[in-house]
Amino acid sequence: MSLHLEGVYQTGADALDIGLSDSLVVANGAGTFVIMTSGIAGGLSVYRLEADGRLSPHDTQVFPSALQTGLGGTITFAEIDGAPVVFIGGDDNEAWGYAFEPDGQIGPLHSYDWATVQAAAATDAPGALQAWGQFSGVTGLAAQMPVPADNLVAVHNLGAAQTGYMLSLDRAAGQVFSHSFGSDGGYVQIAVLGAAEGLAISNPTAMEIANFGTNSFAIIASATGSSISVVEVGLDGSLTPVQQLIDTASTRFANVQDLTLVQDGDHVFVMAIGADHGVTVFRLLPDGHLVFLETFEDDLGGALDTPTTINAQFQNGILHAFIGTQDTAALLHLQSDQSNLGQVLSSSLQGADLLSGSNGDDILLAGSDADTLTGGAGHDILSSGPGHSTLTGGTGNDIFVIRAESTRVEITDFRPGQDRLDLTDLPMLRNLGQVEVATTTTGAVIRFRDMEIVITAHNSAMLSLADLFPDGLFGADSMLIIAGETDPVPPPDPPPDPPPPPGPPGVQMDGTNTHDSLLGGEGDDTLNGARGNDTIRGWDGNDLIDGGNGHDRLWGGAGQDTIYGGARNDMIGGGSGNDLLYGGTGNDSIYGGAGNDTIYGEQDDTRLWGMSGHDLIHGSTLGGRIGGGGGDDTVIGGSGNDTIYGGAVIGNDSIDGGSGDDMLWGMEGDDTLIGGLGDDFLGGALGNDRLHGGPGDDTVRGAEGADTFVFLDGDETLLIEDFSFADGDQLELDNTLWQAGLTLDQMLGIHGTVANGDIVLDFGDGDVITLAGLANIGLLADYITII
């Protein structure tokens, strides 16, 4: 892409050049203008983007001292009654903004009551909703939300007012919300997405929106997590996490300060700045995935030490980026020639498609099995699809993006030194030691888990690991996103058809070999369904229910019930009380209900939900999905591949995956997660969690809180995605992993190294720990406990 510095600009007035905090780009009939603000005690500076690509100083304005208490260092561009305004702040009664004249000059300062700004937002006036949300505080837009936001970072409207949706980002809650516009002028919450729902966006700093036809995506920056997340906004206002990238040694968005998005048709560029002195550039694909392009690092003598704001604009085929800094009196202007942008093509989801690019820089996306993509000339991006994909880049510097849903990808013309492999989407891949690379006579084969990438060199020559990855796994790391689970609402009690009269207290009722409906009474009933697809309800009392052989629907009701599903696929609900529930054979769905229930999935593929109460849940032989629900639950997976959630309601859960390749997610509370045998993923989410992967190739993520990661002799490999000194995380190590008598510093000197920006502890015999994104091994001894 070749992003380069065009120039460094100043007004010559320290009050306007030092402490730049926010920026805007405004294009009108007179040209393109860059507006910078230097915060509370500063003002506005305007630069004009000339036809030759340079900036020229255009106008300045120092803020009146009387307004400083209502300024926050941010600015917003909006139209009020058709007149363009640069809003700079406000108080409980009114907003303040400068008129922006047609020639790019700063006009008079005006005040607007909030009712005027709100009315403009209701009529889709550009920028009015953003101005209202940004400056009206907790008594304005935020107060009208069903869940009031403590600190709105950004607000965007998608679609027309009254028929579209509003998207808001709350810094204090670390959540993004979607709202529809109510008939009474208020807002109706549609969806919320945050750590409890599986996407941690702690201390968000920016949100931008990209649109591909009817598909919309929000790109969100998180300072605390040094992450950039992509969320799809559905036509119904739903929020679906697509991707979350975290900063690495080869990117420059640590503690993300700001990001911007610039779009030319379906070509979307995302640029982010961080505290690590640089700019990172991505392309956003139409499916919502980011592809790393390059970083621009500070070689300007510290000019990028403290970047605070970034904006961008296309003009005459050139991508322009404008960066303001906190401590350096400078506006940096970067450029990249993008005059050769080509086609953006996505295959259908139906069958084997053939997509061919142009002579430009194309983006081609496979969407179904057996798709074939051919880039042609130009610097192309080719993304594999589900199943089998064949990718041919053609001439140019091409990027081959390998997607996680692919099983076999064939690359037919890889050019070492020009082309690049992007494996960002592969889950939990952090270093090249996790992949198998075999050189062939015509190229190489890469294997990762169940995926195979067959690469043929453009000249059919052998390819080495260094040919394929000269800079290692270059770019950002991808976090595995696990959508949070809330307790499902069990189906309503099925009405008997026809309902028999309630039996006397304490009766025994036996079904037949047909489809029976049995209804207990107020006592302790014994109800046997026998054969057939039965519907049985115990009602009150401590009932004993056996569904027998058939697809049964069994409901305990009030009381401490014991229910056996029997053979075949049953649906079981315990109801209130401390129930004992057995699935039997078949693919069963079991809901514990209120009370401290004990649930056994037993055999086959099951769905087990504890609901409220302190539940004990045992998984089944073939695995399944298990949710503890509210309370302090104990969940023990079976011998299959389980997906287990502690529950979205706060509870201190204990989860053991058992054998199999399990996925465990603690959710809220101080949870204990044990992977057991197999290649497991453990996610702590909120709270101070304890995570032990067990034997196998495990990946763990503590997320928020002071988490403890346990590693014992014989546990094989462990990847810790987010070990944090700042959070107070701890590493508990078995003292039999190394020679007796060594201090922790001596142990780290013998067994510890730093590779590709990660701390690696190799104890031999296959026992290896990787702490992703940590390079300061000298601090680690203070965060290790010997057990």
UniProtKB/TrEMBL annotation:
Annotated spans, Disordered: 483-534
Entry keyword set: Membrane, Repeat, Secreted, Toxin, Virulence
Record bears the keyword Repeat: yes
Subcellular location(s) of the protein: Membrane; Secreted
SUPFAM superfamilies: beta-Roll
Molecular functions (GO terms): calcium ion binding; toxin activity
Main subcellular location of this protein, as a coarse class: membrane
GO cellular component, one term: extracellular region
Biased composition (Pro residues): 488-505
Pfam families the UniProt entry points to: HemolysinCabind
PROSITE patterns for the chain: HEMOLYSIN_CALCIUM
Protein name according to UniProt: Bifunctional hemolysin/adenylate cyclase
Species: Roseinatronobacter ekhonensis
Gene name linked to the record: cya_2
